[in-house]
Amino acid sequence: MENKVYVVGMGPGKPEMMSREADRILKECDTIIGYTVYVDLLRPSYPGKEFLTTPMTQETRRCEMAFEEAAKGKKVAMVCSGDAGVYGMSGLMMEVGEAYPGIEVKVVPGITAALSGGAVLGAPLTHDFAVVSLSDRLTPWETIEKRLRCAAEGDFCICLYNPASKGRPDHLKRACDILLEVIPGERLCGTVENIGREGEGAKLYTLSQLRDAQVNMFTTVFIGNSMTKEIGGRLVTPRGYRI
Amino acid sequence: MENKVYVVGMGPGKPEMMSREADRILKECDTIIGYTVYVDLLRPSYPGKEFLTTPMTQETRRCEMAFEEAAKGKKVAMVCSGDAGVYGMSGLMMEVGEAYPGIEVKVVPGITAALSGGAVLGAPLTHDFAVVSLSDRLTPWETIEKRLRCAAEGDFCICLYNPASKGRPDHLKRACDILLEVIPGERLCGTVENIGREGEGAKLYTLSQLRDAQVNMFTTVFIGNSMTKEIGGRLVTPRGYRI
Q1: Which H/E stretch holds residue A67?
Q2: Could B232 and A112 be called an inter-chain contact, meaning their C-beta atoms sit closer than 8 Å?
Q3: Whole-angstrom Cα distance, residue A195 to residue A212?
Q4: Angle A231-A131-B156 from CA coordinates, rounded to 5°
Q5: Which helix (H) or strand (E) holds A120?
Q6: Cα distance from A72 to chain B (closest Cα, Å)?
């Protein structure tokens, strides 16, 4: 194939947390496309590029724009916060790309919030874990509830994305109520806000306390498994090494 | 605190897939400690450093060495393949670190195989997913079986780490048999070998076929959810956008 479009995971936001490969591709490309908030984070680091944005809910149009620009012969990067795949655009790019058979989609992974947020909290996700988004914009709430129950029954460490937004301020409370049917209220949990950006901060809770925690769309939530403990104010899930 | 030790996720192995932050810290440090195989991947890129290694099963000793070197005033990085947390050393470092209260553990995340392998296969983990290791070295097999069942019942995309090793060549077959109790045999799956290294390759299977796939300790396995499909030879899990 002649043309490629890149779907690039930019990590949590701090430019230094992007992979060197992602940075190189953004430097090489002509056009950077993404959701307005994330593109604005990149502008200062990549002068001279063409920046194209669409708001949230315009994801399909954003993908079409990427292919249209690539078809003109430009080197195009679609950027995603965190990873290119996990709640990112790589899947939709491949679906939309079926209409552009001459253009190959190349995926460049990035550090998703489960990893970057885990590093801020300590070491919550050292072993088997499940990631669940509480956004019901594209997923029925019943599916979300079922996944929460299954993750709790499997004693997975759980990482929750999108715990709240304007239209759904009580999703974390509802999720905790489901988890509390399986998991004891004293289970250790944590939240991380603004990972890799100004205002970064972590807090520890019990699951009962987490129910009433203040969260927003820039918060990532971690629920420990039955082995998770606190060490010096940090959330740590041991893997079972003998020490 | 005066002293810090860094636990650094180095990504899948290709130096360019490390974050710029991880690269900077390795360049700044005096001593790099890790499992022999991964340290050998780093040696050419970081000349002039002191490299210390211990074999697998010596993880606790490896952590103690990191703190002992840091206590001498050296800047020390403990490296892990993939992420610092996910099946990495950050948790054990915090446990061992309780004996070294003057030394702070700083975690530097990296791209774990679920993300880097997903990028090679296409876009399998675009939505809720579960990660399970099939290694029973530190986890009872019954726990692994339970997690597989729960992940299947929750219709999670599933990523399997450590699908085989010398002592346990049939773990993937046993895992597939459990998954097949819940998931139909035609469910799309994929494997990725040697992510970001020489010999990188991806293959698609059905779950029935995956049962007999050849895998080794450098293979990462992906099992799609009920929505996962193939697009142009790639494994893609749609998120439900209207296109």
Answers
A1: helix A59-71
A2: no
A3: 21
A4: 140
A5: helix A113-121
A6: 22
What is the rounded CA–CA span in Å between residue B105 and residue B6? 6
Please judge whether B241 and A111 are an interchain contact, meaning their C-beta atoms are less than 8 angstroms apart: no
Cβ neighbours of A228 (radius 10 Å): 24
For the cut 70, the answer to whether the pLDDT of residue B30 exceeds it is yes
Inter-chain CB proximity A243 and B96 less than 8 Å: yes
Q: Give B145-191 pLDDT, tens digit per residue.
A: 999 999 999 999 999 999 998 888 899 999 999 999 999 999 999 99
For position B152, what pLDDT does the model report? 98
What is the C-alpha separation between A129 and A155, in angstroms, rounded? 9
* Interface mutation target, options A4, A14, A19, A178, chain B, most CBs of B under 10 Å: A19
Chain B residues lying within 8 Å of A20, measured CB to CB: 15-20, 23
SS3 A92: helix
How many Cβ contacts (< 8 angstroms) between chains A and B?
250
User: What is the arrangement of strands in the sheet containing B157-161, beginning at the earlier edge strand?
Assistant: A201-206, A188-193, A219-223, A157-161, A129-133, B129-133, B157-161, B219-223, B188-193, B201-206
Min CA distance, B208 vs chain A (Å)?
23
Which residue stretches of A123-204 are H helix? 141-153, 171-179
